[in-house]
Specification:
single chain, two-stranded parallel sheet, about 500 residues, alpha/beta, about 30% helix, nine-stranded mixed sheet, disordered C terminus
Length: about 500
């Protein structure tokens, strides 16, 4: 709550020019001072109550999200696991190593505590309410890492996997090749990256050529870019994609610090954040409207280089969708799997109801995700050599598809114009795998009606206003999400 300034109180109580030069000992002045002091004290007391409440909630959430019960996540050694468009089969030690390098290299953004107070509130943590913001940050971070880092980059200091259980094949399993000896993996299996040859394997002849491990290097320039990208998501007001900036942008959608953010609202906040920052001159964000990607809108957005001359902006395409009513429509599961198999897909922000997660892959009927619900101390990313350890996770988690909230936002990345054209083709093919009559979303030639380029590029048009309000649909009113979607 904002306090009332003494000058404002004086203006309201005085009633006009008669108080410009009051008698030095008038009773009216004494009364005026009493009213002013009383309002000031009352305002200070209310502010103190708000601060105490914020501190109490922060302390409670720090305890609630600052620890977690360790449990092992099982992984099948016969079924392929898809992670960021890459396929892994855990039947050799090298395959587990490939997966480890890829998973731990993903940027992990979680709740933080003790960061600078958010403007207009007494909050110094996002514990308990900022999980969708963190998931959105991870989606954007994945896209930026895809944009700036070499295709085969892996973090050289990635940690060993922990809390995982690789289910071993039975001795008579028909899928186990004769004479094949399987490694014994523990819950924290790993080999130090610097001490092993990533290309050596006793089963080299049995591993497909396309599964060759990427080399892990310590190029100082590449690692400097890695650190720079992470710093953009720091928990301080100056970070272009930090919580402070996103909360400020959320005010345009009627949101404030402490509110719950939906995946559609966060998609538009990310669009505005990228358009606002000077750090990214050749990257744009397009948010689909009404589950439709208008190709001409994307083309014009990416070809409008104000300061860099003619060319093409790389683009992150975010598609807010709703995959069912109160729960996920099972008919869309195969379609979601097909999308996650694509190299152009950079993940899905969604989760369980009121519990946001960042989905980055799947195995069998379970989604693989990064979880933001872990409260960590704030890291000062302005320091030149800040620790990167807390920005990378080494404990992969899985969740059944049937627990997935139907409200989500799917992300794609296209570096060049040719990449975008290929994206349209392969994504359309993936969408056709749905058993439903209507696809999750569509590509359309031309431009969206009443939806100018400014809406995509961060101008004054707020594209959320052009989406069909969810509360106008003949749906249950019990739904808690405040996002707006078109019912498929």
């Amino acid at each position: 709550m904002n306090s009332v300034s003494p000058s404002a109180v004086q203006y309201q109580v005085s009633g006009g020019v008669h108080e410009d030069k009051p008698p030095p000992h008038s009773k009216r002045l004494v009364g005026h001072e009493s009213v002013t002091d009383g309002i000031k004290e009352s305002s200070e007391e209310l502010d103190e109550v708000v601060r105490l409440k914020a501190k109490f909630m922060s302390a409670w959430n720090n305890v609630k999200y600052g620890w977690s019960v360790k449990s092992k996540t099982p992984f099948n050694t016969t079924s392929p696991l898809i992670l960021m468009g890459q396929s892994y089969v855990f039947n050799t030690e090298d395959e587990v190593e490939r997966f480890r390098q890829m998973f731990v290299s993903c940027v992990w953004l979680t709740y933080r505590r003790e960061f600078p107070q958010l403007e207009g509130s007494g909050l110094t943590t996002d514990c308990g309410w900022g999980c969708m913001l963190r998931s959105g940050q991870m989606l954007l971070a994945q896209g930026l890492m895809r944009h700036f880092m070499p295709p085969d980059w892996r973090w050289a200091d990635c940690h060993p996997l922990s809390d995982v259980d690789f289910e071993m094949l039975g001795p008579r399993s028909p899928s186990r090749p004769a004479g094949m000896s399987l490694p014994s993996f523990t819950s924290s299996w790993s080999s130090p990256v610097a001490q092993r040859n990533p290309f050596s394997s006793s089963n080299e002849g049995q591993r497909p050529v396309h599964r060759q491990q990427p080399s892990v290097s310590r190029d100082p320039q590449v690692e400097a870019v890695h650190r720079k990208v992470v710093s953009w998501f720091g928990d301080q007001p100056s970070a272009p994609f930090g919580v402070h900036q996103l909360v400020e942008l959320g005010k345009g959608s009627g949101k404030k610090a402490g509110d719950w953010y939906g995946p559609s609202v966060v998609a538009h906040m990310l669009r505005k954040a990228v358009a606002k920052t000077k750090e990214l001159q050749n990257v744009a964000v397009y948010v689909a409207q009404d589950c439709t990607i208008y190709k001409e809108d994307v083309m014009q957005l990416c070809e409008s280089l104000e300061s860099s001359g003619p060319g093409w902006k790389s683009v992150l395409i975010l598609v807010p969708v709703r995959l069912g009513g109160d729960s996920l429509n099972p008919s869309y599961i195969e379609c979601v799997k097909s999308i996650l198999r694509l190299q152009s897909c950079i993940g899905i922000i969604g989760g369980k109801p009121k519990h946001s997660l960042f989905f980055i892959g799947f195995q069998d009927e379970q989604l693989v995700y990064l979880d933001p619900h872990y409260c960590q101390p704030v890291v000062d990313v302005t320091q030149g050599n800040f620790s990167l350890e807390s920005f990378h996770c080494n404990s992969p988690r899985k969740m059944n598809f049937n627990r997935m909230d139907p409200s989500c936002t799917i992300g794609f990345y296209a570096r060049t114009k040719n990449d975008f054209e290929c994206l349209c083709s392969v994504v359309s093919e993936a969408l056709s795998s749905s058993k439903e009559k209507y696809p999750i979303f569509t590509f359309v030639e031309g431009r969206g009606q009443n939806y100018g380029l400014e809406g995509h590029s961060g101008g004054p048009v707020d594209s959320t206003s052009h989406m069909l309000p969810f509360n106008r649909l003949s749906r249950s009113k019990k739904r808690g999400s405040t996002d707006e979607f078109v019912l498929l």
